[in-house]
Amino acid sequence: MLLFIIKRAGALVATLFVTSFIVFVALQYAPGSPIAALVGGPGVTAETIARVRAQYHLDDPVIIQYFHWISGVLRGDFGNSFVFKESILGLIGPRLEVTGVLVLYATLLIMVFGIALGLISGLGSRLWDRVISASAAVGLAVPSFVAAIVLIAVFAVGLGWFPVFGSGEDLGDRLWHLTLPAIALALSATAYVVRVTRSSIREEASKEHVLTAQARGVASGRVVRRHILRNAAIPIVTVGGLTATGLIAGTVIVESAFGLSGVGALLVQSIFQRDYPVVQAIALILVVAFVLMNLLVDLFYLVLDPRITIGSGQ
Known about the structure:
The chain is mainly α. The protein has two domains: 2-74, no CATH class; 89-304, Orthogonal Bundle (MetI-like fold), CATH 1.10.3720. It is built from twelve helices and no strands. The longest helix is centred in the C-terminal third of the chain and has 39 residues, at 220-258. It is globular, with a radius of gyration of 24 Å. It comes from Leucobacter muris.
């Protein structure tokens, strides 16, 4: 276990360096220039522009610019925003909380409803299987921005049950504000987990040891818990973990639709305004979240099945 964690930590560091360099270089060669955001409007003297370029190392080779940036990141300093003229950590911090709560809320919805509906579809009657399978197919086909528009039109504007904009204040109010965004974010992912759960459950239910337990008169609840769900959990956890990680990218659309001040909305705004340090910081955070989620999924395999040797491919 310890050796596995050390190896994954090394892979995490290597992934972060490679990804951060690719993002940094890509932004350097993107169309446009951050100079306008740094020095203001027209009428700026050439001396001012030269001083700003020297301050931000814009005239240095790309590799030198990357070295200055990554060395600051390793010290916990992501620099300052070109547009907002403030610390990037101070800028991202409150927005990261909103996005984090939204992603956790959506992940909870995905795992609870995805697994529950998949179980009903895999073990229930043919009617329930058809209804849930058809609903899952529809859910997979609905993009998050379409789901957001429908939810706003029906439950916020039409029925007035939920607020349209904002993320709320305390925890209860925040969850109320984030309910519709979480549903929009989780809809297609929940449908995917339903289908994976259904397939895994049906495959396990048809195996010989399950049929033997049923023939011996073992209680159906015990058979489902110990012989079916436990063995089917690994593909379900894998898909659920990767899906939850992918939700971070989906927040870009959902946060914009619901007027949330999260990391996704800030990323879109920063790209349009060529606020490169903010884009680089958010991209790095997304990579860290993705790699850490993969690590947690791998470690959870041991809880589900201690026979698995992590990293051996078995």
